[in-house]
Amino acid sequence: MRFFPSIPCQIQLLALFLDNFIGYLQLWIALCIGTNSSAWLGTAALVTNMRNFPLSRGTVAGLIKGYVAVSAAVYTETFNGMLGNSATNLLLLLALGIPTACIVVMYFVRPCTPSLEEDNSTEHSHFMYTQISSVVLGIYLMVATILGDTLKLSQAVTYLLFGIMILLLLAPLAIPIKMTLYPNKQTKEKPSTLAPSYSTDSLSGADPENSEPLLGSASATLATRAHESDDSTDLDVLLAEGEGAVNLKKKRGPRRGDDFTFLEALVKADFWLLFIVYFCGVGTGVTVLNNLAQVGMSVGANDTTILLCLFGFCNFVGRILGGSLSEYFVRSRMLPRPFWMMCTQIIMVVTFLLFATGLHSLIYVSTTLLGICYGVQFAVMIPTVSELFGLKDFGLMYNFMLLVNPLGAFFFSALLAGYIYDKEAARQHPGVLEPSNCYGPDCFRVTFYVCAIVCCCGTLLSVLFIARIKPVYQMLYASGSFRHPRSQQQLH
User: Fold this and answer.
1) CB contact at 8 A, 324 and 260
2) What is the pLDDT of residue 14?
3) How many other β-carbons are positioned within 10 Å of the β-carbon of residue 228?
4) What transmembrane ranges does the database entry give (predicted)?
5) Taking a C-beta distance cutoff of 8 angstroms, is the pair 61, 383 a contact?
6) What CATH number corresponds to the domain at position 51?
7) For position 251, what pLDDT does the model report?
8) Cβ atoms 61, 43 nearer than 8 A
9) pLDDT for the residue 485
10) For labelling alongside 213, which of 69, 100, 197, 478 has CA 20 to 30 A away?
């Protein structure tokens, strides 16, 4: 005799299913909106500033991504200092406060006329001030987070720490305030050797007093030359068409350093080499980031907050450092930026082997090295994309590169690390249906070995990639400053 549940029982099961389904659906929608809005905000700020400061791409990328790296610590201090450790207040801040702040400041995130002076001391000093203030902010957040975790601070001290953090966050506003109160005197512009898209005429307009005579003189000269060489020009065109040169020129796509469309970049080997190299570094790094608490617990680190704070600060330092170092050496030595990706991946190989030992004494050193290397990968990839494939579809290409994060998390974190961790936990706790914790070096040893091998492959591919794009960087930075390839053709 079969057992059929009663009607009330079926209704209860259906209600329970619908309740869980609606809860998961709400969570999915919230995560979808949150992550997509974050991508929109980051892309708007990054693309706008890369176009506003085309001569300082590495520095801009390092600063913007550096502030993203410390944002988690900022919200942690806000949660502890002003929100009273209330999850409801935090959700209200994210739902109402963040959109309000975006609406207030969105007017200032807009394209501006970029500086065309190669040796602009004012711009360099402003970038230096912003970098120093951001480093001070990062150090302060790390110290404040550790103090808040290890000591029982009074409410007054917590408010004081929060107030200091706000002042450090607002420190870069001193630059526009200073420029407003003490504007620089207009200096006579020097002739620019940049691309036509960055020329002074296209950005600021021609001189109204001299435009007509110059136009008339140029038109007369062109008319005279056209009249004298009309027959020879027609003959050259006919010969070129006969040889197929004109058709070949029409089919020729952009060269590395020109402005590519996204579809044009997708068929280039350099685009996929950069994607794979970036995947080898960031894809393995995000695996440790997602499992850092479990990694710390497996080697005996009871308080993983300090470990996470250390990784976040070193990630921030790596982004600032990667942007600044790559910017300096690409100008002084024409050194391709992916060289630093290669160096950091070599260090990451050693770091993963240190993680694999499972020694408690090495966990903080390993976390420090990995955080710096992980940050450098971000700061180097962004300007590399803009230099090789231009700024025309830069936002789309940059976000395509960010697919590395979920792909690395899926393959190395979910499939590899999660499977090995659960299997070792089940071996350590026989008879338990769902063991939660795993202890010992065997929990992640195989995962770290695989990550080290992947970074070795990434290092070898980096060597090939650097060899391919080295002539491009020699052409772009031959004069010590970024120069568009088309302007090189015009000069020669």
Assistant:
1) no
2) 60
3) 10
4) 25-47, 59-76, 88-109, 129-147, 159-181, 271-293, 305-326, 338-356, 362-384, 396-421, 446-467
5) yes
6) 1.20.1250.20
7) 56
8) no
9) 56
10) 197
Q: Give dist(CA 302, CA 282) in Å, integer.
A: 27
211 — phi, psi (to 5°)? -70, -40
Q: Is residue 73 within 8 Å of 145, Cβ to Cβ? A: yes
Angle between helices 363-389 and 7-52 (to 10 degrees): 60
118-136, pLDDT tens digit by residue?
667 788 899 999 999 999 9
Q: Which two tokens stand for residue 382?
A: 């962004």
Q: What are the angstrom distances between the C-alpha of 64 and each of 122, 275, 278?
A: 20, 21, 19
Report if pTM > 0.85. no
Among 43, 86, 100, 127, residue whose Cα is nearest residue 328: 127
Of the ranges 103-107, 239-243, 381-385, 434-438, the best mean pLDDT one: 381-385
Residue for token digits 């898209």? 197
Supply the range of the domain harboring residue 477: 28-109+120-173+258-491
Q: Give the separation between CA 204 and CA 186, rounded to whole angstroms.
A: 13
Are 178 and 172 in contact, with CB atoms under 8 Å apart? no
Residue 478 is assigned to a structural domain of this protein: yes
| Six-digit token string for 416 | 């590899």
* 13 occurs within a structural domain: no
Q: How confident is the model at residue 16 (pLDDT cuts 50, 70, 90)?
A: low
Domain tally, the chain: 1
Distance (Å, whole) CA 414 – CA 287 = 8
Domain presence at residue 228 = no
The alpha helices in 151-283, defined as continuous H runs, are 155-169, 174-181, 200-204, 211-228, 230-243, 245-251, 262-266, 269-278
Q: Has residue 241 got a pLDDT over 70?
A: no
